[in-house]
Amino acid sequence: MNKFTKTALASIFTFSAAGASAAAFQLAEVSTSGLGMAYAGNAAVADNASVVATNPALMTKFKQVEISAGGVYVDADVDVEGSFRTVNGRAIPSSATGNANAKDIIPSAIVPNLYVVAPISERFAVGGGVNVNYGLKSEFEKTYSAGVLAGKTKLSAVNYNFSSAYDLGYGFSFGAGLNAVHAKATLERHFGALNPMAPTATASRLKGDKWGFRWNVGLTYDINENNRLGVAYHSPVDLRFKGKYVGTQSANVEIPGRLNLELPAYWEISGYHKLTEKLAVQYSYKKTHWNSFRELRATDNNGKVLLQKDKKFNNNSRIALGVSYDVIEALTLRAGIAYDESASVAHPSISIPDTYRTWYTLGATYRFTPNLSVDLSYAHLSGSKNTFTESQVTAVTSAVGEFKVKSTANLYGLNVNYKF
Questions:
Q1: Which region is the signal sequence (predicted)?
Q2: Which of 39, 50, 136, 150 has its CA at 20 to 30 Å from residue 71's CA atom?
Q3: Where are the domains of the chain?
Q4: How many alpha carbons lie under 13 Å from residue 168 in its C-beta half-sphere?
């Protein structure tokens, strides 16, 4: 990391409705076929090579080399209503300075993916993939009155995965993967109401990147040819940033700084059941261990605290139910519904417009030939309204704001799959 500064660190790893369909800064958009079923059955369904991102044990179900490439376009509508209530203990009149409203704070974005699965023998397969597991992009105007709380925030954590799987027999398959994660962040904050004479002046700025590593494992059990259960686990990622700090703790002089952050572990249990020759149902329960994210703490090389901000995230759960129907041999239709809990209940932020979300999804796969198919999916995400108070307190200044965040999003997915 090249540069990290006081206020920007307070929201470095956050993801909201438009890049983050899942809680906090986690992404769910790993495939288009999964999107069509609200990602129900992710650890048990072997529709295409995207199983590399969900449960590597499913790679034993493939008889040919297969690739899948595409992405999900996220179009979010996130608005903030609020006011900057006090600065340094003094009330701010209801004026343009104290107004903290903002519209469309999440720009549209594409979440890409690429996967390949290659059977080596009847029982052994390998695979690899690239997808984005975590990320955020939120933008407020430079004149925003609460600029010390939110400005420009951009984060992406690209996951590079190599996996292998083995058919253990008796219906069981096991898979494991190694992952390299490249995290990049750009953050910028402005003084806003803290400096009415120059509200657009930059209070802090951050731009940097860091590599981390993780592992994942998965297990599937085929009850019979029409029923399958799956479970998958993805380990946490420890990111140890080293860079430069500028802020009140350094008298606005650039000094070396350190910040340790963890991308949380998560696990998922899924089921797949083919009820008739044409109709199947899928379901999932997913748990993400956000309780490891307690605070953001930056220090200098001597251990002096440069920044401390409580987060105290909660573990969150996600449940999903989906159906698929083979209209004809060449066409499969999908639908799904899911409910996703918020992780930032204790300390919400306008730079983390996290909320409880409900998914409504539709999708289809069309097979042009036995080897070539295309997935199309659409999802509407409806977020609950979130009302909260947020503050920024340092040794020399403090600011308090009251906010209400409304969020919805529309997702459009496209993937192309090919078998060799």
A1: 1-22
A2: 150
A3: 6-419
A4: 13
Distance CA 274, CA 279 (A): 6
Digit-coded pLDDT (tens) for 348-361: 888 878 889 999 99
What whole-number distance in Å separates Cα of residue 76 and Cα of residue 74? 6
CATH superfamily, region 6-419 = Outer membrane protein transport protein (OMPP1/FadL/TodX) (2.40.160.60)
Exposure string over 316-341, b if 16+ CB within 10 A, otherwise e:
bebebbbbbebeeeeebebbbbbebb
Kindly write down the DSSP assignment for every residue of 336-401, as one continuous string.
EEEEE--S-SSS-BTTB----EEEEEEEEEEESSSSEEEEEEEEEEEEPPEEEEEEEE-SS-EEEE
Distance, CA of 405 to chain centre: 19
pTM listed for this prediction:
0.89
> Cα–Cα distance between 184 and 210 in angstroms, integer?
7
**Amino acid 13: pLDDT:** 32
Length of the chain: 420
3-class SS of residue 34: helix
Classified as helix, coil or strand, 225 is coil
**Which among 208, 219, 190, 199 has a CA at the least distance from the CA of 57?**
219
